[in-house]
Amino acid sequence: MAPHPTTDWMQLQDRFYRKQEIYTMSWKHMDLSKFMVAGASYGGPIAMIRDEKKVQVFQSKQPFKPTIYLYTSAGKLMEQLQWDKERIVTMGWTDTERLIVVLEDGKICLYDVHGEHTQISLGKEAETSSVIDCQIWGSGLVALTGDFKLVALTNFDEPRPRLMADPGLNEPPHSWTVIPPQFTLSRHVEVLLATGTTILAVDQIGAVDQLITQGPFTKMAVSPNGKFLALFTQDGRLLVFASDFSKNLTEFPTKSKKPPNQLVWCGTDSAVLYWDNIVLMIGPFGDFIKYSYDETIYLIPEVDGVRIISSDKCEFLQKVPRETEDIFKIGSTAPAAMLFDALEHFEKKSPKADENIRSIKTELADAVDDCTKAAGHEFSTDWQRALLKAASFGKAFLESYNVDNFVNMCMSLRVLNEVRYYEVGIPITYEQYRRMSPEVLIDRLVNRHHHLLALRICEYLKMRTDRVLIHWACAKITKSTDDEETICLMIVDKLANKPGLSYAEIAKTAYEVGQPKLATRLLDYEPRAADQVPLLMDMQEDEVALEKAIESGDTDLVYLVILHLEKKLPPSEFFRIINKPMACNLLEVYFKQQDLKILNDFYYQDDRRVEIANIRILESYEKTDLTDRINKLREASKWYQDDKEHGFEAKAVDEHIRLLQKQAQLEKDIDGQLIGLPLNETVHKCILAREWSKADKLKSDFKIPDKRFWWIKIKAFAEMREWDELDKLSKSKKSPIGYEPFVEACIKAMQTTEAAKYIQKCDPAVRPGLFIKIGDFKAAGQEAYASKNIQLLGEIRNKCTNPAIAQELEGWINQLQNR
Questions:
Q1: Sites in the chain below the pLDDT cut of 50
Q2: In terms of CATH architecture, what is 608-704?
Q3: Burial of 29 (0-12, 13-18, 19+ CB in 10 A)
Q4: DSSP secondary-structure letter at 288?
Q5: What is the mean pLDDT of the chain?
Q6: CATH 2.130.10.10 is held by the domain 31-163
Q7: N or C: which end of the chain has fewer CB within 10 A?
């Protein structure tokens, strides 16, 4: 059994803190005093490089090539990076465990844990003035330049360096730090600069003096939740302020005017200062705990404690969680402590077990919960097991207890114990795991190439395994020395039982590392054409991309390939590749609206004469000059004539040319636009202009049928309100279209008297309905009476609103009924 949990407890006022050894470090004889060190939070890796400011004498005697070493928290070497760039100002880690190396010339190198890197710049300001210091947080950084300006970069994936407000400094600040955007009211990064006896708060807008007088401050640190600020003064005091400077919460005299090497937070309730050989933890009420070291150490702040890295071990300093304190504190009578004791008595077959259970019966559920939570706070598997056993023992006495928390804790601890194993070296606490989420932990395992462990955890937690398998496949392609055939078979075999898994990212990796054949083969297994086709295009596999797009039936995807090919290839090659039915159809639809020239070239190379003629007609409508339009139409007519089956279309085009020429002549005598109007509309315009002879000439020249000509005339005369001309037309000869159009035209013009004249000329069967339309119910009734239609008379009577006429209609109905 591991030592009792209280063995390493130390009291600070009414609270307990503990410093647990997590690992014996794998590295040997590591003197941290000679290195610049950067540790990632959440049990992350440690980066180290020889600090040139500390090893000048050593360098002159023993030349060495600068190297950045990446270690796990257990001191296991992960990677070595040969350093041949500018002087390093500082190093830090992102939330995704990428190492940030800030250089004096304003460049930033970002490394993953295997040494793959990208480089970005802080912009001209940093390049010109150089960088003298830098503060890094999980998703960004702020650099201090040689002319004391501040440059902020808040997103490493989309780097856009921005100059912050000028703080007006003439010398470097005594110390400085940043409050990350997620903790500020403005949601923008805020910089705190210690200058003189006060502190300036600087953001994008301006610099505000906080008007405090306790400085100068030679060290400062913001708490993990962004709410508190720890300050070390020049005269050796530690002050704790609210981060908005509204309250001074703590003041503690350390009796050392020398600034500490490090000032960090232990969670959110105590500050930790480190000088050579001494670690001093100061609580919220001014009490302190002192730890001594005879070697250089490095502190890595965590959300719930501090990781302490030394030459031989990794320790974790934290406030003892409430549940753990309740159970193990000497003399504790908390329900969870009673339950834990009850299990011990039960195992000894002592009746005291029953007494304990009875004494906490009303609080037994809370006791079970606390034992479960306390198990989560332990690194020792022995004590985890003991606490979970106590919780399980308590559950047996509860009739209805939701076991979800217990089950989840068991699963979480199994995961945590796996990743804490020294070969993996991620010593996260349950609280850190809860905050970071299983998904992020899986990402970190995958990035460290612990693919098998990540896969097993995903399966255990019933999470999707896609990203683990995809990353494994990409890593296999990048690192493997096997031939492409072997790699392909290996990947496909491993992923065969994962339907729907995307191969596109894997294929992209293969292409990027110079294995295009492997990439193409892998893409054959990609189930989603939308992922498959764009990558094939990037790989210059144009014909395959088009085939896959067509097979998918996705028209947008086919368009994507067509447009890509049209921009990339010469016309002959373009037309050769797209010569497939679906592609051709979509090409015609698209380019008919966007670019007729390309469509014309396509038809020409395929000898499609009728389609070329159709294009000429479309082009003719784009011409504003009449001569140009007619020339295009003549070309269309010629193309139609080349195809014997399209003589009608050729004749129609010739007729249209003749109409355009006639319209051009008519425009000289008639005001208004005629060119381009249809024949019917042209005749209509002539009548409206009282050029009736010209209208007759158009009828004759273009052989307009009488019926259509009469329709045009009736409509025009009604618009002109030329009722005499309309009357003359009706009497000129028998109407080829009857007289209802006359009536309708008059009704539309609200000329009921005129309409009545023509109703009498209409067929007797339609007269009643037409009379009803003009509101002459009596005349409608007379027509119905004459045809002896009693039903129609009844309908007319029902519609009639004039009582006298309605009575007369009723009389006619009676007469017909009595016959």
A1: 56-63
A2: Orthogonal Bundle (1.10)
A3: exposed
A4: E
A5: 88
A6: yes
A7: C
